[in-house]
Amino acid sequence: LYTKFAVLLHAFTGLGLVESASKCRKIMERHFVGGFITEYGAKSVLVAGSYMFSACVAFVAWGWMDAAFGCESLGESMSGSRGFGTFVFWCFVFFLAFSYPVLSILMIVVVDSSLQRMERHRMENGIETTQHVWVGPLAAVFAGCASMLLFRFASGLIMDAVDALFLCFAIDEDNGVDRSKSGGGRDGRGLGNGPNEKEEFAAMVRAMPGFVVA
């Protein structure tokens, strides 16, 4: 309650955090038997989607870097008998990097600087350079981490909106607001204000996997 609905109630009313938490707990006890929704299911879907879309962005960035610089690092790493294993390996690397995107970006900057110095030394000594091997993967991880930060921010906005709507419903119930006058009711346009509708919604909330007794 302190980190979710109490903060929302604090934003609504301007009360202190402790007082908001106390009022929020009483509201939940009156209408949802002292429980609140933790949204484990929705959060899991958003997190999984963020990882998947970030991995897609990473592979697209890798392919784009290869095309821009005339390299074949992605195609070479995925071809042959070890192609699937290499694909799984890079997915695992992306998963680790996306779990800590800010730290991964900082590490990429350090690694890129070190590799540039190494390539400059090889060039000065007439040794064949190898930047075509590591430029694509580094760019892929960087682009994927940047996408992960964006998707995490968007997911947080969605979850905050869900929490705010749920708390607004509980506050409406606490103040006896008749939602049937604004599109609710048994006519199929929304949730009404009758006792059956209230109990049905409360039963649905209590039946959710993420329902936790406060």
Oligomer: single chain
By helix and strand content, what is the structural category? mainly alpha
Tell me about the biggest sheet?
2 strands, antiparallel
* Residue windows where pLDDT falls under 50 for at least 5 positions: 183-193
Number of helical segments with 4 or more residues: 8
Principal-axis shape equals elongated
What does this structure look like?
This protein has helices at 5-13, 17-32, 40-69, 73-78, 83-99, 101-124, 131-174, 195-207, and strands at 35-37, 211-213. By secondary structure, it is mainly α. It has a two-stranded antiparallel sheet. Helix 2 packs across helix 7 (131-174), helix 3 packs antiparallel against helix 7 and helix 5 packs across helix 7 (131-174).
Features:
two-stranded antiparallel ribbon, mainly alpha, 214 residues
